[in-house]
C-alpha cells in the first residue's frame, strides 16, 4: 500500500472542516471517550495507503474530541500483528485499530493467525469499501482487458501476475480472473505494492493485482495501467476504469473494506462513543473527498450491521478459497 502524502498536507486538508478551539473544548467534555491519549493501531508501514488514511482521520478526531490521537504502526504479517495487539489491549476505549479486509481474510488462509475476528475484536464502524485492481505493465502495450487476453495468447511463457499479499484477495482475484478467461495465471508474491509497482514499471512482470488504493496514483502517473477492478460498478475515485462485471465477467465481483475495531469486551457505551465520532468525521465533505481520492468509497455502519456483513463475506470468501483449491498455510 504505497499511496503517500505528507502529514502537513493531510492535517491541513482535514483541518478545513474542523470546529473552533472553544467548540473543541466543549466537545471534549461531551464525547464519552476516555480523558486521555487515544491510539489507532495500523498494521502496515508509515506512508502506505492504510497509514495515510488513518493519519488523515486522526487529525479531525483530535480536534473534535480534544484528545491526542496517536497512530501506532505495528506492521507485518499482512496486518495480523496489529490485530493481535488490539486483541491484547485493555478494553478501556483508549485503543482501536484501522483494519482492511485483507487482514481479516488471513483467518481463512493461515492456520496460525492469532485472533478470531468474530470473538477477539469488536467492530465499531465500517469506514468504506475498496476494490481490487488488476493492472498491467506499460511496457507490454496493453490498454484493455481484450487486448491483455490476446497478449496472453501470444506470450504463453508470461502467464504470471504479481500479488501484494499471498493468501489474500489480491492473490485470489488474479487466480479467479485467469480461470474466467480460460488462461491460468500464476501468482508471484511481493512484499507489498512498492516493489510490485517498480517491477511493473520496468517490465519485469507483465501484470499485478492489489487494492485500488495501492495503484491509483501510479495508474494516473502512467507507471502501471489498471485495466479492470472488482466491483459491480466503477469505484468513485476512478469512474473511467471498468469493472470485470461490466466487461462480461460477473463472477469477478469482490469488494474489500476498511473497518475500525476495538478489543472484545469493550463496554457498549465506549463503542457507541467511538462510533459516533468516527461516523461524524467520515461524513465530513472534505474527509469524504480525500478518502475517495485515495480509492476508498466511504460507507459507515453500526456494529451489528458490520457483523452481519463480515459473517456473510467470510462465508462467501471461504467458498471462493475452496473452489480455487487454496490450502491454509501452517
From the alpha carbons, calculate the radius of gyration and give it in angstroms.
Answer: 20 Å
* Beta content: 15-25%
User: How many E strands?
Assistant: 10
- What gross morphology would you assign? globular
Helix content: 40-55%
- The biggest beta sheet, please? 10 strands, mixed
Helices and strands, in order, run as HHEHEHEHHEHEHEHEHEEHHEH
Given helix and strand content, the structural type is alpha/beta
Mean pLDDT value: 89
- Counted by DSSP, the helix tally is 13
The end-to-end distance, rounded to whole angstroms, is 25 Å
Structural write-up:
With 330 residues, this protein is of the alpha/beta class. Helix 1 crosses helix 3 (49-65) and helix 3 (49-65) crosses helix 11. 42% of the residues lie in helices and 18% in strands. It is globular, with a radius of gyration of 20 Å. Strands 1, 2, 3, 4, 5, 6, 7, 8, 9 and 10 form a ten-stranded mixed sheet that branches. The chain is built from 13 helices and ten strands. Strand 5 (160-163), helix 8 (169-181) and strand 6 (186-189) form a beta-alpha-beta unit. The longest helix is centred in the C-terminal third of the chain and has 22 residues, at 303-324.
Tag the structure with descriptive keywords:
single chain; alpha/beta; 10-stranded mixed beta sheet; 10 strands; globular; disordered N terminus
